[in-house]
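Closing statement on the magnesium ion sub-project.
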Amino acid sequence: MGIVECKDIKKTYQQGKIEVHALKDVSLSIDKGGFAALAGPSGSGKTTLLNIIGGLDQPDSGSVSVAGNTFEKMTQSQLALLRLHNVGFIFQSYNLIPVLSAVENVEFVMLLQGVQATQRRERAMAILDDVGLEGKYHRRPAELSGGQQQRVAVARAIVSNPSIVLADEPTANLDSKTGNGLLEMMRKMNEEKKVTFIFSTHDKMVMDYARRLVLIRDGRIVDDKIK
Amino acid sequence: MSMDVKMAWRNIWRNPRRTILTISAIAFASLLLVFMLSFQFGSYETMINSSVKIHTGHLQVQSTGYQDKKSIRLVVPDPDAIGKILDQIQNVEAYTFRADAFSLVSSKKRTYGSMVIGIDPVKEEKVSTLKSLIRKGSYLVKDDADQVLIGNLLAKNLKVDIQDEITILGQGRDGSIAATVVKIKGIYSSGIDDLDRSSIHMPLKYFQDVYGMYGAVHEVVVIGKSLKKTKIIKAALSAGIKKTDPKDRLVVLDWKELMPGLLQSIELDLVSGIIFYFLLILVVAFSILNTFLMVIFERTREFGVLKAIGTTPGRLTKLLLIESISMTMIGIVAGIIAGSLITLFFQEHGIDISGASDLLSQFGISGRIYPRLSILSALIGPGAVFVITFLSALYPAFKIRSLNPVEAMTYV
Ligand SMILES: Nc1ncnc2c1ncn2[C@@H]1O[C@H](COP(=O)(O)OP(=O)(O)OP(=O)(O)O)[C@@H](O)[C@H]1O
Ligand SMILES: [Mg+2]
């Protein structure tokens, strides 16, 4: 069984009077240690699928499980705790808490987990070193470049050794060089720390980094290749 | 400092202008409440003390029913026996005996009804302020007989002055006619119109002769070491009287029972104050509510991120409450400090209220009022501000729990 299991997922949004079928019967299994890309045109349902896998959104039908936890019947608090321990999230932008410095943003997750203060600081600094931000620990998000902010977001997502990291178009707001750097770094974390990554993109170059490429169109998986 | 508090603190100062405005509103309300409550408590205390000092005393022993009927027949037959009991009670400062009779008072030109009060000039001095209220002429001395003190308004009505003679006509204890002619020795002004318009004081011994009292009086007036001791004295005195008066012919009344109007006035003043304070606090609570609804609106995306990285709804509520409580506390502490300083200043220098307050002049207070800062007056208002603003901050704090992270995130 994969670390992520989605079965027969359907999700319909109401936009005024129109029903938008964002996901129509999606089943997907991702193995531990994977580095998978969800690719597809805008509006195809990538974000919706990632949000459902992360428990931020609930499907209308079908089942989802992450690391053996089936979401059905879980309360908001239980889902939050599941995310805290098993799921890392990286968004396109504005990922960080603006009032916290880089190192505090990373520490915050460990604070929620109840890690001791001294240990928190040490681990947060080490992981920031890993993502190439040594020396920038005490900068606030506003004092970091877009690429650096995304690196902090990656550091925060992986610091708790989650089962999966979900990244929704993490490079979309970056220039291609910075985007490449970030992907290289994510790939390195995937290989060195065995973190499972699932990310969405519609950028051809980003798809090339993936070891598995899942193509979505109009709320359906139309292709699934392992490279 | 814990991370939660650090975060709250930084968040508070993200919008310094709004924060300062909100904090100022809280501080100002707290300041106002500290001062106003201290002022009210101070004026009540002054009111009670001066009323007590002018006539009623802290406690009185009367014949049962006298308070309502004021009948000359309802007497305390052996005042000295009560005096002996009082001598044994520790917290008693002083006591005196009085007798009252409603009578007609005539000058050459006019006649008015008035209460004629017999007092022991020496004992009275330790119990009431009568002596200090004399504005013209002089106070009575031990062996004075057919001499009286008269209220300034009554003197004006009768068109008499000191050294003039007036005729008093009334009914004695035994039903006989009581009549005498006396000379005005002094004129007093208490500031309480009722008293100044219709009272005359004469030596108790002379009163007892004229009205055929046979040594009896109507009131034993007691002053304790302080107002707070009233309860203890009342208990001791009642117990003492019980032994010699098995038929309950005598009662002990405290100042509240002697002046029901005073207590009512205080309660009324307090209630109307409370309504005003409540409105004031409500306005402040709305400003907090508004601030935090704005906060949620502005930081929706941030709360979405917090939820996405695993912050539980409970924790979010806690974070927001720490923010609102910190803001409220800064305002309240600033308000208490500023309010206390202002109150202490006026406690020292007094506030001129001449002519400003009808309520106060009714109880013989004019001139200066001294607010009285106490732990109660300093904390009760700000405490209410805290509770009500806390309650109003609960709404936004719980509202973010139901925030849908997906919608929050698409909201940029
Ligand atoms: N909260 C929502 N309410 C209504 N409709 C929504 C909502 N979220 C998504 N949709 C609709 O569902 C469909 C799928 O959206 P989704 O965001 O998953 O696409 P996407 O593949 O992530 O697109 P993009 O590449 O532009 O990010 C779209 O048609 C979108 O308009
Ligand atoms: Mg999307």
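Chain B has a mean pLDDT of 90. With this model delivered, the sub-project is considered complete and its resources will be redirected to Aim 3.
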